[in-house]
Design goal:
Blueprint (H helix, E strand, L loop, with lengths): L12 E6 L3 H11 L4 E7 L3 H10 L3 E3 L2 H6 L5 E4 L6 H10 L3 E5 L6 H14 L3 E4 L6 H9 L6 E11 L11 H4 L2 H4 L2 H10 L2 E11 L8 E10 L4 E9 L6 E8 L2 E6 L2 E6 L2 E5 L7 H15 L7 H20 L3 E2 H8 L1
Helix pairs in contact: 1-10, 4-5, 5-11, 9-11
Pfam families: GFO_IDH_MocA, GFO_IDH_MocA_C
Protein name: Gfo/Idh/MocA family oxidoreductase
Organism: Amazonocrinis nigriterrae CENA67
Length: 339
Protein backbone atom coordinates (compact mmCIF):
# COMPACT_ATOMS: atom_id res chain seq x y z
CA UNK A 1 0.00 0.00 0.00
CA UNK A 2 0.97 3.65 -0.37
CA UNK A 3 3.89 4.66 1.81
CA UNK A 4 2.30 7.45 3.83
CA UNK A 5 5.68 8.40 5.29
CA UNK A 6 6.51 9.91 1.89
CA UNK A 7 4.09 12.78 2.43
CA UNK A 8 2.99 15.13 -0.32
CA UNK A 9 5.72 17.62 -1.08
CA UNK A 10 3.76 20.01 -3.28
CA UNK A 11 1.61 22.98 -2.33
CA UNK A 12 -1.57 21.50 -3.82
CA UNK A 13 -2.76 18.15 -5.12
CA UNK A 14 -4.28 18.35 -8.62
CA UNK A 15 -7.51 16.39 -8.89
CA UNK A 16 -9.52 14.88 -11.71
CA UNK A 17 -13.13 13.92 -10.92
CA UNK A 18 -15.15 11.23 -12.71
CA UNK A 19 -18.89 11.71 -12.21
CA UNK A 20 -21.47 14.48 -12.00
CA UNK A 21 -24.03 12.97 -9.63
CA UNK A 22 -24.81 13.53 -5.96
CA UNK A 23 -21.56 12.07 -4.58
CA UNK A 24 -19.50 13.89 -7.23
CA UNK A 25 -21.04 17.23 -6.29
CA UNK A 26 -20.22 16.71 -2.62
CA UNK A 27 -16.67 15.73 -3.56
CA UNK A 28 -16.28 18.78 -5.80
CA UNK A 29 -17.49 21.11 -3.07
CA UNK A 30 -15.09 19.59 -0.56
CA UNK A 31 -12.17 19.84 -2.97
CA UNK A 32 -12.74 23.44 -4.06
CA UNK A 33 -13.16 24.52 -0.43
CA UNK A 34 -9.83 23.01 0.66
CA UNK A 35 -6.81 25.11 -0.30
CA UNK A 36 -4.65 21.99 -0.50
CA UNK A 37 -6.50 20.69 -3.58
CA UNK A 38 -7.20 22.04 -7.05
CA UNK A 39 -9.98 20.54 -9.19
CA UNK A 40 -8.38 20.39 -12.62
CA UNK A 41 -10.91 18.48 -14.72
CA UNK A 42 -14.28 16.71 -14.67
CA UNK A 43 -15.87 14.06 -16.87
CA UNK A 44 -19.40 12.67 -16.84
CA UNK A 45 -21.81 10.61 -18.95
CA UNK A 46 -23.89 13.45 -20.38
CA UNK A 47 -21.98 16.28 -22.16
CA UNK A 48 -24.53 18.93 -21.14
CA UNK A 49 -24.40 17.91 -17.48
CA UNK A 50 -20.61 17.76 -17.58
CA UNK A 51 -20.37 21.25 -19.09
CA UNK A 52 -22.74 22.69 -16.48
CA UNK A 53 -20.86 20.95 -13.68
CA UNK A 54 -17.50 22.24 -14.97
CA UNK A 55 -18.86 25.78 -15.14
CA UNK A 56 -20.27 25.60 -11.61
CA UNK A 57 -16.96 24.46 -10.14
CA UNK A 58 -14.70 26.45 -12.49
CA UNK A 59 -12.94 23.44 -13.97
CA UNK A 60 -12.33 21.80 -17.37
CA UNK A 61 -14.91 19.46 -18.93
CA UNK A 62 -13.52 16.39 -20.67
CA UNK A 63 -15.18 13.89 -22.98
CA UNK A 64 -13.86 10.60 -21.53
CA UNK A 65 -12.37 9.22 -18.34
CA UNK A 66 -9.55 7.75 -20.42
CA UNK A 67 -8.52 11.29 -21.35
CA UNK A 68 -8.71 12.36 -17.72
CA UNK A 69 -6.46 9.63 -16.28
CA UNK A 70 -3.81 10.28 -18.95
CA UNK A 71 -3.43 13.99 -18.16
CA UNK A 72 -0.04 14.88 -16.72
CA UNK A 73 -1.48 17.77 -14.71
CA UNK A 74 -3.55 15.42 -12.50
CA UNK A 75 -2.14 13.76 -9.36
CA UNK A 76 -5.30 12.26 -7.86
CA UNK A 77 -8.32 10.71 -9.59
CA UNK A 78 -11.61 10.67 -7.65
CA UNK A 79 -14.13 8.15 -8.99
CA UNK A 80 -17.79 8.96 -8.29
CA UNK A 81 -19.53 7.37 -11.24
CA UNK A 82 -21.58 4.21 -11.91
CA UNK A 83 -20.39 1.12 -10.04
CA UNK A 84 -19.65 -0.88 -13.20
CA UNK A 85 -16.78 1.42 -14.20
CA UNK A 86 -15.03 1.77 -10.83
CA UNK A 87 -12.52 -1.02 -11.29
CA UNK A 88 -11.52 -0.15 -14.85
CA UNK A 89 -11.00 3.54 -14.05
CA UNK A 90 -9.07 2.82 -10.85
CA UNK A 91 -6.78 0.38 -12.67
CA UNK A 92 -6.15 2.82 -15.52
CA UNK A 93 -5.48 5.71 -13.13
CA UNK A 94 -3.01 3.70 -11.07
CA UNK A 95 -1.30 2.53 -14.26
CA UNK A 96 -0.77 6.24 -15.05
CA UNK A 97 0.80 6.72 -11.61
CA UNK A 98 -2.16 8.59 -10.11
CA UNK A 99 -3.44 8.33 -6.58
CA UNK A 100 -7.04 7.05 -6.46
CA UNK A 101 -10.11 7.69 -4.33
CA UNK A 102 -13.17 5.64 -5.29
CA UNK A 103 -16.66 5.39 -3.84
CA UNK A 104 -17.53 1.82 -2.81
CA UNK A 105 -17.48 -0.72 -4.33
CA UNK A 106 -13.92 -0.76 -5.65
CA UNK A 107 -15.28 -2.98 -8.43
CA UNK A 108 -18.40 -5.05 -9.11
CA UNK A 109 -15.99 -7.95 -9.72
CA UNK A 110 -13.97 -9.27 -6.77
CA UNK A 111 -11.12 -10.56 -8.94
CA UNK A 112 -10.71 -7.19 -10.64
CA UNK A 113 -10.79 -5.46 -7.25
CA UNK A 114 -7.99 -7.72 -6.02
CA UNK A 115 -5.93 -6.78 -9.08
CA UNK A 116 -6.47 -3.07 -8.39
CA UNK A 117 -5.31 -3.43 -4.77
CA UNK A 118 -2.21 -5.30 -5.93
CA UNK A 119 -1.49 -2.62 -8.54
CA UNK A 120 -1.73 0.16 -5.96
CA UNK A 121 0.83 -1.64 -3.82
CA UNK A 122 3.12 -2.20 -6.79
CA UNK A 123 2.89 1.47 -7.80
CA UNK A 124 3.13 2.69 -4.19
CA UNK A 125 0.09 4.90 -4.75
CA UNK A 126 -2.79 5.79 -2.47
CA UNK A 127 -5.91 3.71 -3.06
CA UNK A 128 -8.75 4.77 -0.80
CA UNK A 129 -12.20 3.15 -1.03
CA UNK A 130 -14.74 5.49 0.55
CA UNK A 131 -16.85 3.93 3.33
CA UNK A 132 -18.42 6.96 4.96
CA UNK A 133 -20.95 4.77 6.79
CA UNK A 134 -18.10 3.98 9.19
CA UNK A 135 -17.82 7.69 10.02
CA UNK A 136 -21.57 8.17 10.55
CA UNK A 137 -23.40 8.66 13.83
CA UNK A 138 -25.07 5.23 13.95
CA UNK A 139 -21.86 3.29 13.41
CA UNK A 140 -19.88 5.39 15.87
CA UNK A 141 -22.63 5.00 18.49
CA UNK A 142 -22.64 1.24 17.92
CA UNK A 143 -18.89 1.06 18.47
CA UNK A 144 -19.13 3.19 21.59
CA UNK A 145 -21.79 1.03 23.27
CA UNK A 146 -20.98 -2.44 21.93
CA UNK A 147 -19.06 -3.64 24.99
CA UNK A 148 -22.07 -2.94 27.22
CA UNK A 149 -24.16 -5.76 25.76
CA UNK A 150 -21.65 -8.56 26.28
CA UNK A 151 -21.13 -11.38 23.79
CA UNK A 152 -23.10 -10.59 20.61
CA UNK A 153 -24.98 -13.54 19.12
CA UNK A 154 -27.45 -12.03 16.62
CA UNK A 155 -27.60 -8.96 14.37
CA UNK A 156 -30.32 -7.85 12.00
CA UNK A 157 -29.69 -4.99 9.57
CA UNK A 158 -32.54 -3.95 7.30
CA UNK A 159 -32.62 -1.15 4.72
CA UNK A 160 -35.81 -1.09 2.67
CA UNK A 161 -36.73 1.77 0.36
CA UNK A 162 -40.12 1.84 -1.42
CA UNK A 163 -40.08 3.76 -4.71
CA UNK A 164 -43.19 3.85 -6.87
CA UNK A 165 -42.68 4.34 -9.69
CA UNK A 166 -39.12 3.04 -9.58
CA UNK A 167 -36.73 5.41 -11.36
CA UNK A 168 -35.23 4.21 -14.62
CA UNK A 169 -31.69 5.04 -13.56
CA UNK A 170 -28.39 3.27 -13.08
CA UNK A 171 -29.16 2.23 -9.52
CA UNK A 172 -31.89 -0.03 -10.95
CA UNK A 173 -29.72 -1.42 -13.74
CA UNK A 174 -28.20 -4.91 -13.35
CA UNK A 175 -24.92 -4.09 -15.09
CA UNK A 176 -24.37 -0.52 -13.89
CA UNK A 177 -25.24 -1.08 -10.21
CA UNK A 178 -24.18 -4.71 -9.80
CA UNK A 179 -25.52 -7.38 -7.47
CA UNK A 180 -27.45 -5.52 -4.74
CA UNK A 181 -25.08 -6.25 -1.86
CA UNK A 182 -22.07 -5.45 -4.06
CA UNK A 183 -23.58 -2.16 -5.21
CA UNK A 184 -24.72 -1.46 -1.64
CA UNK A 185 -21.55 -2.84 -0.03
CA UNK A 186 -21.92 -0.69 3.07
CA UNK A 187 -24.68 -3.02 4.32
CA UNK A 188 -22.06 -5.72 4.76
CA UNK A 189 -19.08 -3.51 5.56
CA UNK A 190 -20.69 -2.23 8.75
CA UNK A 191 -20.80 -5.84 9.93
CA UNK A 192 -17.29 -6.91 8.95
CA UNK A 193 -15.91 -3.75 10.54
CA UNK A 194 -17.68 -4.50 13.81
CA UNK A 195 -17.54 -8.29 13.98
CA UNK A 196 -14.59 -9.49 11.89
CA UNK A 197 -14.31 -12.53 9.66
CA UNK A 198 -17.21 -14.44 8.10
CA UNK A 199 -17.43 -18.25 8.12
CA UNK A 200 -20.40 -18.99 5.84
CA UNK A 201 -22.81 -17.05 3.63
CA UNK A 202 -26.37 -17.85 2.53
CA UNK A 203 -28.44 -15.56 0.34
CA UNK A 204 -31.75 -15.40 -1.52
CA UNK A 205 -32.43 -12.74 -4.13
CA UNK A 206 -35.45 -11.81 -6.24
CA UNK A 207 -36.10 -9.19 -8.95
CA UNK A 208 -39.32 -7.86 -10.44
CA UNK A 209 -38.69 -6.59 -13.98
CA UNK A 210 -40.46 -5.91 -17.28
CA UNK A 211 -37.27 -5.46 -19.33
CA UNK A 212 -33.84 -7.16 -19.30
CA UNK A 213 -31.57 -4.28 -18.28
CA UNK A 214 -33.65 -2.47 -15.65
CA UNK A 215 -35.73 -3.81 -12.76
CA UNK A 216 -38.57 -2.24 -10.84
CA UNK A 217 -37.86 -4.00 -7.54
CA UNK A 218 -35.14 -6.06 -5.94
CA UNK A 219 -35.30 -7.82 -2.59
CA UNK A 220 -32.65 -9.92 -0.87
CA UNK A 221 -32.13 -11.70 2.43
CA UNK A 222 -28.59 -12.71 3.32
CA UNK A 223 -27.40 -14.63 6.37
CA UNK A 224 -23.82 -14.46 7.58
CA UNK A 225 -22.30 -16.79 10.13
CA UNK A 226 -19.17 -15.21 11.57
CA UNK A 227 -16.17 -17.18 12.80
CA UNK A 228 -17.13 -16.04 16.32
CA UNK A 229 -20.48 -17.85 16.01
CA UNK A 230 -22.42 -14.62 15.57
CA UNK A 231 -25.39 -14.86 13.19
CA UNK A 232 -26.28 -11.79 11.12
CA UNK A 233 -29.24 -11.25 8.81
CA UNK A 234 -29.07 -8.51 6.19
CA UNK A 235 -32.28 -7.44 4.46
CA UNK A 236 -32.06 -5.15 1.44
CA UNK A 237 -34.90 -4.04 -0.80
CA UNK A 238 -35.93 -1.17 -3.04
CA UNK A 239 -38.57 -0.41 -5.60
CA UNK A 240 -42.24 -0.67 -6.46
CA UNK A 241 -43.38 -3.84 -4.66
CA UNK A 242 -41.92 -2.66 -1.35
CA UNK A 243 -44.53 -1.00 0.85
CA UNK A 244 -42.96 0.02 4.16
CA UNK A 245 -39.64 1.85 4.50
CA UNK A 246 -37.21 0.60 7.10
CA UNK A 247 -33.69 1.49 8.21
CA UNK A 248 -33.07 -0.57 11.31
CA UNK A 249 -29.98 -2.05 12.94
CA UNK A 250 -30.47 -4.50 15.84
CA UNK A 251 -27.56 -5.93 17.82
CA UNK A 252 -28.43 -8.56 20.44
CA UNK A 253 -25.96 -9.53 23.15
CA UNK A 254 -26.11 -11.71 26.25
CA UNK A 255 -26.25 -8.65 28.54
CA UNK A 256 -28.46 -6.35 26.48
CA UNK A 257 -29.36 -5.01 23.07
CA UNK A 258 -28.66 -2.01 20.86
CA UNK A 259 -31.50 -0.92 18.60
CA UNK A 260 -31.11 1.82 16.00
CA UNK A 261 -34.25 2.77 14.09
CA UNK A 262 -33.31 5.46 11.60
CA UNK A 263 -31.27 7.95 13.60
CA UNK A 264 -32.83 6.98 16.95
CA UNK A 265 -30.90 4.62 19.18
CA UNK A 266 -31.63 2.70 22.41
CA UNK A 267 -29.62 0.58 24.83
CA UNK A 268 -31.90 -2.10 26.27
CA UNK A 269 -31.39 -4.13 29.45
CA UNK A 270 -33.76 -5.93 31.80
CA UNK A 271 -36.36 -3.40 32.93
CA UNK A 272 -34.51 -0.43 31.42
CA UNK A 273 -34.35 1.30 28.05
CA UNK A 274 -31.82 4.13 27.68
CA UNK A 275 -31.76 6.51 24.68
CA UNK A 276 -28.48 6.73 22.78
CA UNK A 277 -27.29 9.97 21.24
CA UNK A 278 -26.65 9.52 17.52
CA UNK A 279 -24.49 11.95 15.60
CA UNK A 280 -25.42 13.53 12.28
CA UNK A 281 -24.99 11.97 8.83
CA UNK A 282 -24.20 15.36 7.30
CA UNK A 283 -20.78 16.39 6.14
CA UNK A 284 -19.33 12.90 5.80
CA UNK A 285 -18.03 13.35 2.25
CA UNK A 286 -16.24 16.50 3.39
CA UNK A 287 -14.80 14.62 6.35
CA UNK A 288 -13.66 11.75 4.10
CA UNK A 289 -12.07 14.16 1.59
CA UNK A 290 -10.30 16.07 4.36
CA UNK A 291 -8.92 12.81 5.76
CA UNK A 292 -7.61 11.84 2.31
CA UNK A 293 -5.79 15.19 2.00
CA UNK A 294 -4.50 14.89 5.56
CA UNK A 295 -3.13 11.48 4.64
CA UNK A 296 -1.41 12.73 1.50
CA UNK A 297 0.09 15.82 3.10
CA UNK A 298 0.75 14.66 6.66
CA UNK A 299 0.73 10.87 6.56
CA UNK A 300 -2.28 10.76 8.89
CA UNK A 301 -3.81 7.24 8.94
CA UNK A 302 -7.12 6.73 7.14
CA UNK A 303 -10.12 5.09 8.78
CA UNK A 304 -10.35 2.11 6.39
CA UNK A 305 -7.91 0.15 4.23
CA UNK A 306 -8.51 -1.13 0.69
CA UNK A 307 -7.82 -4.65 1.97
CA UNK A 308 -10.72 -4.35 4.43
CA UNK A 309 -13.03 -3.15 1.67
CA UNK A 310 -11.79 -5.95 -0.60
CA UNK A 311 -12.57 -8.56 2.05
CA UNK A 312 -16.13 -7.29 2.36
CA UNK A 313 -16.46 -7.32 -1.41
CA UNK A 314 -15.51 -11.00 -1.34
CA UNK A 315 -18.26 -11.60 1.23
CA UNK A 316 -20.71 -9.80 -1.09
CA UNK A 317 -19.50 -11.92 -4.00
CA UNK A 318 -20.11 -15.02 -1.90
CA UNK A 319 -23.67 -13.76 -1.29
CA UNK A 320 -24.12 -13.39 -5.04
CA UNK A 321 -22.97 -16.95 -5.69
CA UNK A 322 -25.13 -18.26 -2.86
CA UNK A 323 -28.18 -16.53 -4.37
CA UNK A 324 -27.38 -17.91 -7.83
CA UNK A 325 -26.77 -21.50 -6.70
CA UNK A 326 -28.87 -21.89 -3.56
CA UNK A 327 -25.78 -23.23 -1.81
CA UNK A 328 -23.99 -22.24 1.38
CA UNK A 329 -20.69 -20.55 0.50
CA UNK A 330 -17.72 -21.12 2.82
CA UNK A 331 -15.51 -18.02 2.95
CA UNK A 332 -12.41 -20.11 3.58
CA UNK A 333 -12.91 -21.78 0.22
CA UNK A 334 -13.45 -18.38 -1.43
CA UNK A 335 -10.27 -16.90 0.04
CA UNK A 336 -8.19 -20.00 -0.76
CA UNK A 337 -9.16 -19.76 -4.44
CA UNK A 338 -8.13 -16.10 -4.57
CA UNK A 339 -4.60 -16.77 -3.35
Amino acid sequence: MYNSEAVWGKVTVRVGLVGTGYAAKLRAEALVNDERSHLVAIVGHEPENTAAFAKEYDTVALSSWQELVEREDIDLVVISTVNRDHGAIAKAALSQDKHVVVEYPLSVDAIEAEEVVALAKAKNKLLHVEHIELLGGVHQALKQHLEKIGSVFYVRYSTINPQNPAPRKWTYNHELFGFPLIGALSRLHRLTDLFGKVFTVNSHQRYWAIEPEYYQTCFSITQLCFTSGLLAQVVYGKGETIWQPERKFEVHGEKGGLIFDGNTGFFIQVGETTPIEVGTRRGLFVKDTTMVLDHLFNGTPLYVTPEESLYTLKVADAAKRAAETGLTIFMADTLDKSL
